Amino acid sequence: MIQNLVAAKNLSIYITGDTIRIIEGRKTGGTISVSKVITTPTPSGSVDDGLITDVTRIAQAINSVLDKKDMAKAKLYFSVYSRKIAAKEIEMPYMKNLEAVGAMINSNIDDYFPMGNMDDYINRFTILDTVEKEGRKSYQIVVYAILKELVESYFELAKALKMPLESIDYQVNSLYNLAKRESRHSTSLFLQIDDDVTHISIFRGTSQLFRRSVPYGADSLVEALAASKGIDEKEARAILIKGKTNDDTGYQIDDYLTSDEYQDMMQDFASSITRVINFFISKNPDIVLEKAKIIGTGVRIVNIDKSLEHILGGIPVTLIKHLHHVHIRKTKGEAKLTNEELTDYLPNIGALIHPLDLRLTEEVSFAKGGIGYGLIFFLLVLAILGVGGGSGFVFWQNNTLENEKDFLIRFNESLQAAEDYHLYYLGARDFINTLSGYDAGTKNDSEALLQLIETLEDIMPSTVRLNDLAIENGKVAISANSYSGKEGAARFLMELKKQDFISNIFISDITDTLDRTYNIVSHFSMTLEISLPADTEILENEGGA
After folding, report:
1. Which ranges of 95-210 does DSSP label H, i.e. alpha helix?
2. What is the arithmetic mean of pLDDT over 229-253?
3. Does the global pTM surpass 0.90?
Protein backbone atom coordinates (compact mmCIF):
# COMPACT_ATOMS: atom_id res chain seq x y z
CA MET A 1 0.00 0.00 0.00
CA ILE A 2 2.84 2.36 0.91
CA GLN A 3 4.47 1.75 -2.47
CA ASN A 4 1.33 2.93 -4.25
CA LEU A 5 1.59 6.28 -2.45
CA VAL A 6 5.11 6.90 -3.78
CA ALA A 7 5.17 8.81 -7.07
CA ALA A 8 6.33 6.75 -10.03
CA LYS A 9 9.59 7.58 -11.76
CA ASN A 10 9.47 9.46 -15.04
CA LEU A 11 12.09 10.02 -17.70
CA SER A 12 11.80 13.38 -19.46
CA ILE A 13 13.85 13.58 -22.68
CA TYR A 14 14.68 16.61 -24.84
CA ILE A 15 16.42 15.87 -28.14
CA THR A 16 18.07 18.48 -30.36
CA GLY A 17 20.39 18.13 -33.32
CA ASP A 18 23.37 18.44 -30.93
CA THR A 19 22.43 16.84 -27.62
CA ILE A 20 20.07 14.46 -25.87
CA ARG A 21 19.17 15.68 -22.38
CA ILE A 22 17.48 13.33 -19.91
CA ILE A 23 16.20 13.80 -16.38
CA GLU A 24 14.85 11.22 -13.98
CA GLY A 25 12.14 12.68 -11.78
CA ARG A 26 8.92 12.20 -9.92
CA LYS A 27 5.70 14.21 -9.89
CA THR A 28 3.70 14.57 -6.69
CA GLY A 29 0.81 16.94 -7.24
CA GLY A 30 2.39 20.16 -8.49
CA THR A 31 5.84 19.33 -7.14
CA ILE A 32 8.61 17.84 -9.24
CA SER A 33 11.66 16.16 -7.70
CA VAL A 34 14.70 15.47 -9.88
CA SER A 35 17.12 12.72 -8.91
CA LYS A 36 19.44 12.30 -11.94
CA VAL A 37 20.34 14.19 -15.11
CA ILE A 38 22.55 13.35 -18.05
CA THR A 39 23.44 14.85 -21.43
CA THR A 40 24.91 12.94 -24.36
CA PRO A 41 25.71 13.94 -27.97
CA THR A 42 23.02 13.25 -30.56
CA PRO A 43 24.20 10.72 -33.17
CA SER A 44 25.11 12.60 -36.34
CA GLY A 45 22.37 12.76 -38.97
CA SER A 46 19.74 11.09 -36.76
CA VAL A 47 17.59 14.19 -36.13
CA ASP A 48 16.32 16.70 -38.68
CA ASP A 49 14.71 19.82 -37.19
CA GLY A 50 13.18 17.85 -34.30
CA LEU A 51 12.10 14.93 -36.50
CA ILE A 52 13.83 11.67 -35.54
CA THR A 53 15.11 10.20 -38.79
CA ASP A 54 17.10 7.29 -37.30
CA VAL A 55 15.08 5.84 -34.41
CA THR A 56 17.44 2.90 -33.90
CA ARG A 57 20.56 5.02 -33.34
CA ILE A 58 18.76 7.46 -31.03
CA ALA A 59 17.34 4.56 -28.99
CA GLN A 60 20.80 3.00 -28.73
CA ALA A 61 22.31 6.31 -27.57
CA ILE A 62 19.61 6.75 -24.90
CA ASN A 63 19.85 3.16 -23.64
CA SER A 64 23.62 3.50 -23.43
CA VAL A 65 23.53 6.57 -21.16
CA LEU A 66 20.67 5.15 -19.08
CA ASP A 67 22.81 2.09 -18.35
CA LYS A 68 25.81 4.30 -17.61
CA LYS A 69 23.83 6.41 -15.15
CA ASP A 70 21.92 3.41 -13.75
CA MET A 71 18.58 5.02 -14.72
CA ALA A 72 15.78 2.45 -14.89
CA LYS A 73 13.04 2.29 -17.51
CA ALA A 74 10.10 4.51 -16.64
CA LYS A 75 7.21 6.49 -18.12
CA LEU A 76 8.43 8.69 -20.97
CA TYR A 77 7.86 12.41 -21.41
CA PHE A 78 9.27 14.16 -24.47
CA SER A 79 9.76 17.88 -25.08
CA VAL A 80 10.12 18.69 -28.79
CA TYR A 81 11.31 21.80 -30.62
CA SER A 82 10.89 22.06 -34.37
CA ARG A 83 10.09 24.55 -37.11
CA LYS A 84 7.56 21.92 -38.20
CA ILE A 85 5.40 23.17 -35.32
CA ALA A 86 3.47 26.36 -36.10
CA ALA A 87 1.84 28.63 -33.53
CA LYS A 88 -0.78 31.35 -33.94
CA GLU A 89 -2.09 33.72 -31.28
CA ILE A 90 -5.78 34.51 -31.63
CA GLU A 91 -8.56 36.22 -29.70
CA MET A 92 -11.92 34.50 -29.33
CA PRO A 93 -15.21 35.40 -27.58
CA TYR A 94 -15.50 33.95 -24.08
CA MET A 95 -17.48 30.71 -23.81
CA LYS A 96 -18.13 28.65 -20.70
CA ASN A 97 -18.01 25.45 -22.71
CA LEU A 98 -14.40 24.76 -23.65
CA GLU A 99 -15.48 22.10 -26.12
CA ALA A 100 -17.23 24.88 -28.07
CA VAL A 101 -13.93 26.78 -28.18
CA GLY A 102 -12.25 23.70 -29.64
CA ALA A 103 -15.03 23.26 -32.21
CA MET A 104 -14.74 26.89 -33.33
CA ILE A 105 -10.96 26.66 -33.65
CA ASN A 106 -11.33 23.47 -35.67
CA SER A 107 -13.73 25.16 -38.08
CA ASN A 108 -11.27 28.02 -38.70
CA ILE A 109 -8.00 26.09 -38.63
CA ASP A 110 -7.29 26.60 -42.36
CA ASP A 111 -7.44 30.37 -41.84
CA TYR A 112 -4.92 30.24 -39.01
CA PHE A 113 -2.44 28.04 -40.87
CA PRO A 114 -2.40 28.42 -44.71
CA MET A 115 -0.30 25.30 -45.17
CA GLY A 116 -2.53 23.42 -47.58
CA ASN A 117 -3.44 19.99 -46.26
CA MET A 118 -4.20 20.34 -42.54
CA ASP A 119 -4.98 16.61 -42.41
CA ASP A 120 -1.22 16.15 -42.05
CA TYR A 121 -1.22 18.14 -38.79
CA ILE A 122 -2.40 17.71 -35.20
CA ASN A 123 -4.02 20.75 -33.63
CA ARG A 124 -3.86 21.86 -30.00
CA PHE A 125 -4.59 25.10 -28.16
CA THR A 126 -3.78 26.75 -24.84
CA ILE A 127 -5.73 29.59 -23.20
CA LEU A 128 -3.20 32.22 -22.17
CA ASP A 129 -5.56 34.71 -20.56
CA THR A 130 -9.17 35.88 -20.21
CA VAL A 131 -9.54 39.61 -20.89
CA GLU A 132 -12.47 42.03 -20.72
CA LYS A 133 -12.81 45.04 -23.03
CA GLU A 134 -15.83 47.34 -23.18
CA GLY A 135 -17.88 44.89 -21.15
CA ARG A 136 -17.06 41.89 -23.36
CA LYS A 137 -14.95 38.97 -22.21
CA SER A 138 -12.66 37.14 -24.59
CA TYR A 139 -9.92 34.53 -24.55
CA GLN A 140 -6.32 35.10 -25.59
CA ILE A 141 -5.41 31.75 -27.14
CA VAL A 142 -2.39 30.21 -28.80
CA VAL A 143 -3.20 27.54 -31.39
CA TYR A 144 -0.60 24.98 -32.46
CA ALA A 145 -0.32 22.92 -35.64
CA ILE A 146 2.08 19.99 -35.31
CA LEU A 147 3.15 17.79 -38.21
CA LYS A 148 1.92 14.23 -37.61
CA GLU A 149 5.13 12.77 -39.02
CA LEU A 150 7.02 14.52 -36.22
CA VAL A 151 4.80 13.03 -33.51
CA GLU A 152 4.93 9.58 -35.09
CA SER A 153 8.73 9.56 -34.86
CA TYR A 154 8.56 9.93 -31.07
CA PHE A 155 5.97 7.16 -30.78
CA GLU A 156 8.39 4.98 -32.75
CA LEU A 157 11.22 5.96 -30.40
CA ALA A 158 9.18 5.05 -27.32
CA LYS A 159 8.40 1.70 -28.94
CA ALA A 160 12.10 1.10 -29.63
CA LEU A 161 12.98 2.00 -26.03
CA LYS A 162 10.25 -0.40 -24.81
CA MET A 163 8.88 2.18 -22.38
CA PRO A 164 5.33 3.55 -21.97
CA LEU A 165 4.88 6.95 -23.62
CA GLU A 166 3.08 9.28 -21.24
CA SER A 167 3.20 12.55 -23.17
CA ILE A 168 4.85 14.63 -25.91
CA ASP A 169 5.08 18.38 -25.34
CA TYR A 170 6.14 21.35 -27.47
CA GLN A 171 9.27 22.94 -25.99
CA VAL A 172 7.72 26.41 -26.14
CA ASN A 173 4.77 25.17 -24.07
CA SER A 174 7.16 23.46 -21.64
CA LEU A 175 9.00 26.74 -21.04
CA TYR A 176 5.71 28.69 -20.83
CA ASN A 177 4.44 26.49 -18.00
CA LEU A 178 7.77 26.76 -16.21
CA ALA A 179 7.96 30.56 -16.51
CA LYS A 180 4.34 30.92 -15.35
CA ARG A 181 5.31 29.31 -12.06
CA GLU A 182 8.01 31.92 -11.55
CA SER A 183 5.63 34.84 -12.23
CA ARG A 184 3.61 36.44 -9.47
CA HIS A 185 1.70 39.73 -9.30
CA SER A 186 4.07 41.98 -11.25
CA THR A 187 4.49 42.62 -14.95
CA SER A 188 7.72 40.80 -15.71
CA LEU A 189 10.10 40.26 -18.58
CA PHE A 190 11.40 36.68 -18.82
CA LEU A 191 14.59 35.91 -20.71
CA GLN A 192 15.18 32.20 -21.26
CA ILE A 193 18.81 32.31 -22.44
CA ASP A 194 20.03 28.98 -23.80
CA ASP A 195 23.21 28.17 -25.73
CA ASP A 196 21.91 29.14 -29.18
CA VAL A 197 18.59 30.94 -28.68
CA THR A 198 16.90 33.39 -26.33
CA HIS A 199 13.17 33.16 -25.66
CA ILE A 200 11.61 36.49 -24.68
CA SER A 201 8.32 36.43 -22.75
CA ILE A 202 6.31 39.11 -20.98
CA PHE A 203 3.94 38.09 -18.20
CA ARG A 204 1.35 40.05 -16.26
CA GLY A 205 0.91 37.93 -13.17
CA THR A 206 0.49 34.41 -14.52
CA SER A 207 -0.86 35.58 -17.91
CA GLN A 208 1.53 35.60 -20.85
CA LEU A 209 1.11 38.78 -22.90
CA PHE A 210 3.86 38.29 -25.47
CA ARG A 211 6.48 35.82 -26.67
CA ARG A 212 9.23 35.91 -29.27
CA SER A 213 12.57 34.18 -29.87
CA VAL A 214 15.85 35.49 -31.25
CA PRO A 215 18.63 33.23 -32.61
CA TYR A 216 21.29 34.46 -30.18
CA GLY A 217 22.24 32.82 -26.88
CA ALA A 218 25.21 32.24 -24.61
CA ASP A 219 27.22 30.83 -27.53
CA SER A 220 27.00 34.23 -29.25
CA LEU A 221 28.85 35.83 -26.32
CA VAL A 222 31.41 33.01 -26.26
CA GLU A 223 32.11 33.45 -29.99
CA ALA A 224 32.37 37.25 -29.62
CA LEU A 225 34.87 36.97 -26.76
CA ALA A 226 36.95 34.33 -28.56
CA ALA A 227 37.10 36.44 -31.74
CA SER A 228 37.96 39.70 -29.97
CA LYS A 229 40.71 38.22 -27.78
CA GLY A 230 42.10 35.61 -30.16
CA ILE A 231 41.44 32.68 -27.84
CA ASP A 232 39.66 29.38 -28.47
CA GLU A 233 35.99 28.99 -27.63
CA LYS A 234 36.62 26.48 -24.83
CA GLU A 235 38.68 29.07 -22.98
CA ALA A 236 36.16 31.83 -23.75
CA ARG A 237 33.33 29.66 -22.38
CA ALA A 238 35.27 28.99 -19.18
CA ILE A 239 35.79 32.75 -18.72
CA LEU A 240 32.17 33.76 -19.36
CA ILE A 241 30.00 30.88 -18.19
CA LYS A 242 30.42 29.49 -14.68
CA GLY A 243 30.16 25.74 -14.28
CA LYS A 244 30.19 24.84 -17.99
CA THR A 245 33.71 23.32 -17.89
CA ASN A 246 35.75 21.52 -15.26
CA ASP A 247 38.77 23.78 -15.55
CA ASP A 248 37.33 27.25 -15.09
CA THR A 249 38.31 27.86 -11.47
CA GLY A 250 41.36 29.95 -12.30
CA TYR A 251 39.70 32.35 -14.75
CA GLN A 252 38.81 35.93 -13.85
CA ILE A 253 36.89 37.94 -16.44
CA ASP A 254 38.65 41.16 -15.33
CA ASP A 255 41.92 39.67 -16.60
CA TYR A 256 40.50 39.61 -20.16
CA LEU A 257 37.98 42.43 -20.45
CA THR A 258 37.65 45.92 -19.05
CA SER A 259 34.22 46.85 -17.74
CA ASP A 260 33.62 48.99 -20.84
CA GLU A 261 34.63 46.14 -23.18
CA TYR A 262 32.35 43.75 -21.36
CA GLN A 263 29.43 46.19 -21.51
CA ASP A 264 29.96 46.83 -25.24
CA MET A 265 29.97 43.08 -25.91
CA MET A 266 26.80 42.64 -23.86
CA GLN A 267 25.17 45.61 -25.63
CA ASP A 268 25.74 43.94 -29.00
CA PHE A 269 24.30 40.67 -27.70
CA ALA A 270 21.25 42.38 -26.18
CA SER A 271 20.45 44.61 -29.18
CA SER A 272 18.09 42.04 -30.76
CA ILE A 273 16.41 41.50 -27.39
CA THR A 274 15.84 45.20 -26.78
CA ARG A 275 14.41 45.61 -30.31
CA VAL A 276 11.80 42.97 -29.52
CA ILE A 277 10.98 44.60 -26.16
CA ASN A 278 10.71 48.07 -27.74
CA PHE A 279 8.35 46.65 -30.38
CA PHE A 280 6.06 45.29 -27.66
CA ILE A 281 6.13 48.54 -25.67
CA SER A 282 5.34 50.58 -28.80
CA LYS A 283 2.21 48.46 -29.29
CA ASN A 284 1.31 48.51 -25.57
CA PRO A 285 2.35 51.91 -24.18
CA ASP A 286 0.20 51.45 -21.06
CA ILE A 287 2.18 48.39 -19.89
CA VAL A 288 5.20 49.06 -17.67
CA LEU A 289 7.79 46.36 -17.11
CA GLU A 290 8.50 46.14 -13.38
CA LYS A 291 11.01 43.28 -13.25
CA ALA A 292 13.21 41.16 -15.48
CA LYS A 293 14.09 37.55 -14.76
CA ILE A 294 16.70 35.35 -16.41
CA ILE A 295 16.43 31.58 -16.55
CA GLY A 296 18.34 28.90 -18.43
CA THR A 297 22.06 28.84 -19.19
CA GLY A 298 22.02 32.64 -18.95
CA VAL A 299 22.05 32.54 -15.15
CA ARG A 300 25.66 31.29 -15.34
CA ILE A 301 26.99 34.16 -17.46
CA VAL A 302 29.28 36.29 -15.33
CA ASN A 303 27.73 39.67 -14.31
CA ILE A 304 24.87 39.35 -16.79
CA ASP A 305 22.26 40.58 -14.30
CA LYS A 306 24.06 43.85 -13.57
CA SER A 307 24.88 44.42 -17.24
CA LEU A 308 21.31 43.85 -18.48
CA GLU A 309 19.95 45.99 -15.65
CA HIS A 310 21.90 48.90 -17.12
CA ILE A 311 20.89 48.08 -20.73
CA LEU A 312 17.20 47.76 -19.80
CA GLY A 313 17.14 51.20 -18.20
CA GLY A 314 17.33 50.22 -14.55
CA ILE A 315 14.68 47.47 -14.45
CA PRO A 316 15.67 45.12 -11.58
CA VAL A 317 17.09 41.88 -13.02
CA THR A 318 16.91 38.61 -11.05
CA LEU A 319 18.65 35.31 -11.84
CA ILE A 320 16.24 32.40 -11.35
CA LYS A 321 18.45 29.62 -9.96
CA HIS A 322 15.88 27.95 -7.71
CA LEU A 323 12.70 26.88 -9.52
CA HIS A 324 9.44 26.95 -7.60
CA HIS A 325 8.10 23.50 -6.69
CA VAL A 326 11.17 21.80 -8.20
CA HIS A 327 13.37 19.92 -5.75
CA ILE A 328 16.58 17.94 -6.02
CA ARG A 329 16.30 14.41 -4.69
CA LYS A 330 19.49 12.89 -3.27
CA THR A 331 20.32 9.55 -4.84
CA LYS A 332 22.51 7.02 -3.08
CA GLY A 333 25.93 6.76 -4.65
CA GLU A 334 25.42 9.90 -6.79
CA ALA A 335 26.97 13.33 -6.35
CA LYS A 336 24.26 15.79 -5.33
CA LEU A 337 22.83 17.82 -8.19
CA THR A 338 23.05 21.59 -8.05
CA ASN A 339 20.39 24.09 -9.02
CA GLU A 340 22.75 25.54 -11.64
CA GLU A 341 22.98 22.13 -13.31
CA LEU A 342 19.19 22.04 -13.61
CA THR A 343 19.24 25.22 -15.73
CA ASP A 344 20.33 23.06 -18.69
CA TYR A 345 17.20 20.90 -18.37
CA LEU A 346 14.35 23.40 -18.28
CA PRO A 347 12.45 21.91 -21.28
CA ASN A 348 12.61 18.51 -19.57
CA ILE A 349 11.21 19.88 -16.33
CA GLY A 350 8.53 21.97 -18.07
CA ALA A 351 7.30 18.92 -20.01
CA LEU A 352 6.25 17.34 -16.70
CA ILE A 353 3.88 20.20 -15.77
CA HIS A 354 1.03 20.67 -18.29
CA PRO A 355 2.13 19.11 -21.61
CA LEU A 356 0.19 19.56 -24.83
CA ASP A 357 -0.09 15.75 -24.92
CA LEU A 358 0.47 15.38 -28.65
CA ARG A 359 -1.16 12.24 -29.96
CA LEU A 360 -2.20 11.06 -33.41
CA THR A 361 -5.73 12.44 -33.28
CA GLU A 362 -7.65 14.91 -35.43
CA GLU A 363 -9.53 16.87 -32.79
CA VAL A 364 -8.41 20.12 -31.27
CA SER A 365 -8.02 19.70 -27.51
CA PHE A 366 -7.47 22.06 -24.63
CA ALA A 367 -3.92 21.86 -23.34
CA LYS A 368 -4.23 23.43 -19.90
CA GLY A 369 -4.48 21.12 -16.95
CA GLY A 370 -5.83 18.23 -18.98
CA ILE A 371 -9.25 19.81 -19.58
CA GLY A 372 -10.73 18.86 -22.93
CA TYR A 373 -12.59 15.82 -24.18
CA GLY A 374 -11.66 14.20 -20.89
CA LEU A 375 -14.03 16.69 -19.24
CA ILE A 376 -17.03 14.93 -20.78
CA PHE A 377 -15.89 11.58 -19.38
CA PHE A 378 -15.27 13.17 -15.97
CA LEU A 379 -18.73 14.71 -15.82
CA LEU A 380 -20.26 11.43 -16.95
CA VAL A 381 -18.54 9.62 -14.06
CA LEU A 382 -19.79 12.27 -11.63
CA ALA A 383 -23.30 11.74 -12.93
CA ILE A 384 -23.11 7.97 -12.45
CA LEU A 385 -21.71 8.34 -8.94
CA GLY A 386 -24.35 10.89 -8.05
CA VAL A 387 -27.37 8.77 -9.09
CA GLY A 388 -27.68 7.44 -5.55
CA GLY A 389 -27.66 10.96 -4.17
CA GLY A 390 -30.68 12.07 -6.20
CA SER A 391 -30.47 15.78 -5.62
CA GLY A 392 -26.76 15.88 -6.52
CA PHE A 393 -27.51 14.36 -9.91
CA VAL A 394 -30.40 16.77 -10.53
CA PHE A 395 -28.14 19.73 -9.69
CA TRP A 396 -25.39 18.43 -12.00
CA GLN A 397 -27.90 17.73 -14.78
CA ASN A 398 -29.40 21.22 -14.53
CA ASN A 399 -25.97 22.85 -14.54
CA THR A 400 -24.90 20.79 -17.54
CA LEU A 401 -28.07 21.65 -19.47
CA GLU A 402 -27.61 25.37 -18.70
CA ASN A 403 -24.07 25.22 -20.10
CA GLU A 404 -25.33 23.34 -23.14
CA LYS A 405 -28.08 25.90 -23.65
CA ASP A 406 -25.57 28.76 -23.49
CA PHE A 407 -23.37 26.99 -26.05
CA LEU A 408 -26.29 26.30 -28.42
CA ILE A 409 -27.44 29.93 -28.26
CA ARG A 410 -23.95 31.16 -29.19
CA PHE A 411 -23.56 28.49 -31.84
CA ASN A 412 -26.94 29.37 -33.39
CA GLU A 413 -25.94 33.05 -33.54
CA SER A 414 -22.76 32.12 -35.38
CA LEU A 415 -24.76 29.99 -37.83
CA GLN A 416 -27.12 32.88 -38.54
CA ALA A 417 -24.19 35.15 -39.36
CA ALA A 418 -22.74 32.44 -41.62
CA GLU A 419 -26.07 32.07 -43.43
CA ASP A 420 -26.26 35.83 -44.05
CA TYR A 421 -22.75 35.81 -45.52
CA HIS A 422 -23.59 32.79 -47.64
CA LEU A 423 -26.67 34.46 -49.14
CA TYR A 424 -24.64 37.60 -49.82
CA TYR A 425 -21.97 35.50 -51.49
CA LEU A 426 -24.50 33.71 -53.73
CA GLY A 427 -26.00 37.01 -54.89
CA ALA A 428 -22.59 38.52 -55.57
CA ARG A 429 -21.46 35.40 -57.41
CA ASP A 430 -24.52 35.45 -59.72
CA PHE A 431 -23.99 39.13 -60.47
CA ILE A 432 -20.30 38.66 -61.25
CA ASN A 433 -20.96 35.62 -63.41
CA THR A 434 -23.38 37.69 -65.48
CA LEU A 435 -20.82 40.43 -65.96
CA SER A 436 -18.08 37.93 -66.73
CA GLY A 437 -20.12 36.58 -69.64
CA TYR A 438 -19.91 40.00 -71.32
CA ASP A 439 -16.29 40.46 -70.36
CA ALA A 440 -14.99 37.00 -71.29
CA GLY A 441 -13.46 37.95 -74.64
CA THR A 442 -11.88 41.22 -73.56
CA LYS A 443 -9.00 39.86 -71.48
CA ASN A 444 -5.62 38.57 -72.54
CA ASP A 445 -2.33 37.44 -71.06
CA SER A 446 -0.94 40.97 -70.98
CA GLU A 447 -3.84 42.20 -68.88
CA ALA A 448 -3.42 39.26 -66.50
CA LEU A 449 0.24 40.16 -66.05
CA LEU A 450 -0.63 43.80 -65.52
CA GLN A 451 -3.16 42.74 -62.89
CA LEU A 452 -0.48 40.66 -61.16
CA ILE A 453 1.98 43.55 -61.05
CA GLU A 454 -0.67 45.95 -59.71
CA THR A 455 -1.70 43.39 -57.12
CA LEU A 456 1.91 42.87 -56.00
CA GLU A 457 2.28 46.63 -55.52
CA ASP A 458 -0.83 46.65 -53.33
CA ILE A 459 -0.35 43.56 -51.16
CA MET A 460 3.36 42.85 -50.92
CA PRO A 461 4.62 43.53 -47.35
CA SER A 462 7.03 46.44 -47.07
CA THR A 463 9.71 44.09 -45.74
CA VAL A 464 9.65 41.91 -48.88
CA ARG A 465 11.77 42.80 -51.94
CA LEU A 466 11.56 41.04 -55.32
CA ASN A 467 14.84 39.99 -56.90
CA ASP A 468 13.44 38.44 -60.08
CA LEU A 469 10.08 37.72 -61.77
CA ALA A 470 9.63 35.52 -64.85
CA ILE A 471 6.43 34.43 -66.62
CA GLU A 472 5.72 31.80 -69.28
CA ASN A 473 2.21 30.66 -70.34
CA GLY A 474 0.65 31.99 -67.16
CA LYS A 475 3.23 30.33 -64.88
CA VAL A 476 5.16 32.82 -62.77
CA ALA A 477 8.49 32.31 -60.96
CA ILE A 478 9.52 34.80 -58.29
CA SER A 479 12.75 35.17 -56.30
CA ALA A 480 12.56 37.46 -53.25
CA ASN A 481 14.05 38.47 -49.89
CA SER A 482 12.08 38.96 -46.67
CA TYR A 483 13.77 41.37 -44.27
CA SER A 484 11.42 40.29 -41.45
CA GLY A 485 12.36 36.62 -41.72
CA LYS A 486 9.94 33.82 -42.50
CA GLU A 487 7.08 35.84 -40.97
CA GLY A 488 7.25 38.31 -43.87
CA ALA A 489 7.34 35.50 -46.44
CA ALA A 490 4.32 33.88 -44.76
CA ARG A 491 2.34 37.15 -44.82
CA PHE A 492 3.17 37.56 -48.52
CA LEU A 493 1.97 34.00 -49.20
CA MET A 494 -1.28 34.57 -47.29
CA GLU A 495 -2.06 37.78 -49.18
CA LEU A 496 -1.44 36.07 -52.53
CA LYS A 497 -3.76 33.21 -51.54
CA LYS A 498 -6.56 35.76 -51.13
CA GLN A 499 -6.32 36.71 -54.81
CA ASP A 500 -8.77 34.60 -56.79
CA PHE A 501 -6.94 34.96 -60.11
CA ILE A 502 -3.79 33.42 -58.56
CA SER A 503 -3.52 29.68 -57.92
CA ASN A 504 -1.05 26.85 -57.24
CA ILE A 505 1.18 28.99 -55.04
CA PHE A 506 4.26 27.31 -53.61
CA ILE A 507 7.23 28.61 -51.61
CA SER A 508 10.48 26.66 -51.73
CA ASP A 509 14.17 26.94 -50.94
CA ILE A 510 13.83 29.20 -47.89
CA THR A 511 17.22 30.04 -46.38
CA ASP A 512 18.06 32.47 -43.56
CA THR A 513 21.06 34.78 -43.33
CA LEU A 514 21.97 37.70 -41.07
CA ASP A 515 22.44 41.24 -42.31
CA ARG A 516 24.91 43.72 -40.88
CA THR A 517 22.57 44.61 -37.99
CA TYR A 518 21.98 40.92 -37.13
CA ASN A 519 18.45 40.91 -38.49
CA ILE A 520 17.27 37.70 -40.12
CA VAL A 521 16.86 37.89 -43.92
CA SER A 522 14.94 35.01 -45.51
CA HIS A 523 15.67 34.26 -49.18
CA PHE A 524 12.93 32.31 -50.90
CA SER A 525 11.64 31.20 -54.29
CA MET A 526 7.95 31.14 -55.21
CA THR A 527 5.94 29.75 -58.12
CA LEU A 528 2.32 30.53 -58.96
CA GLU A 529 -0.16 30.55 -61.83
CA ILE A 530 -2.35 33.42 -62.99
CA SER A 531 -5.72 32.76 -64.62
CA LEU A 532 -7.06 34.32 -67.78
CA PRO A 533 -9.87 36.71 -66.91
CA ALA A 534 -12.77 34.57 -67.99
CA ASP A 535 -12.73 33.93 -64.22
CA THR A 536 -14.84 36.09 -61.97
CA GLU A 537 -11.89 36.93 -59.76
CA ILE A 538 -10.39 39.67 -61.93
CA LEU A 539 -13.77 41.34 -62.27
CA GLU A 540 -14.17 41.14 -58.51
CA ASN A 541 -10.77 42.77 -57.98
CA GLU A 542 -11.59 45.54 -60.46
CA GLY A 543 -14.92 46.10 -58.81
CA GLY A 544 -13.26 46.46 -55.45
CA ALA A 545 -10.63 48.86 -56.68
Report:
1. 98-107, 109-112, 148-161, 171-182
2. 73
3. no
